[in-house]
Amino acid sequence: MKEKIKKKKLSLGIAILAIFLIIYGANELSSYLRFPKEEGVVILAWAIVYLTSGIGLFAKKFWAYRLTQATFIICMVTTPLVLFLGDTSFMIKLTLVLIFELIFGFILYYLSKRRIKEQFLGIVEEEEPSGKKSVQETLHTIFATLGYILYFIFGIWSFLVNLSIANEILGFWGVLLGFTLFPVLLVVMPWYALVAWGNWFPLAVTYGGLILAFALNFIASLFSEDGY
Fold first, then answer.
1. CA-CA distances (angstroms) from residue 169 to 47, 152, 154, 173, 180?
2. Lesser CB count within 10 Å: N end or C end of the chain?
3. CA 29 to CA 40: how far, in whole Å?
4. Per-residue pLDDT tens for 169-182?
């Protein structure tokens, strides 16, 4: 016996997020069209990404769901660069970075919830289980397991690398802050090492490992029959 699963209605949170992306993208596009500059190509690209994501979310497209996730992951990774730009007080910049990181983190957490993801899944036909794992299920298990292993390995490795940077800068207090505010440690320290010392290794370990693990889990989701 087969059962059909239909897409759920769009939640209020997704509707608000889609509206925000469309408005922000339209504003960026309008600014670029009024004052086009060569260096504004990046702004134009982001404007298109925001507009595409927002419209796609309203249309309940799964690719738009993934694009929105990728967009906010990139925002989380690049936001700490603000710490090294402009003449504003470092504490003000740090406060702003922390606020935006919390916002981006909350959005990614919200998008990761099962009931939210279900809104973007197409109609799926499910058959009664035969008791044997298909090749598709096996591949899903393999890629998902590798992804979680990488999350664990690079998570511990990046924590130790960035903790050593905090110790180098602030000594005991850096280590203490690293343990109590480890998300901040993982966000700020790799960029500090790159900008202040020209050392790209912490950045590669921290974000490179995250990207690899995310990619493996994304591939695993492609082999999952229900899209998870």
1. 38, 26, 22, 9, 16
2. N
3. 10
4. 878 777 777 777 76
The full set of domain ranges for the chain reads 1-128, 133-228
Q: Which residues contact 93 (CB under 8 A, 6 or more apart)?
A: 82, 83, 86
Model pLDDT for residues 27-56, shown as the tens digit of each residue: 888 877 776 666 567 778 888 999 999 999
Say if residue 225's pLDDT is above 60. no
Q: Is the pTM of this model over 0.90?
A: no
The CA–CA distances, whole Å, from 219 to 60, 131, 150 equal 21, 24, 14
Tell me the one-letter amino acid at 102: L
Distance (Å, whole) CA 214 – CA 220 = 10
Q: 3-state SS of 159-228?
A: HHHHHHHHHHHHCHHHHHHHHHCHHHHHHHHHHHHHHHHCCCHHHHHHHHHHHHHHHHHHHHHHCCCCCC
Q: What is the DSSP letter of 9?
A: P
Cα 37 vs. chain centroid, distance in angstroms?
29
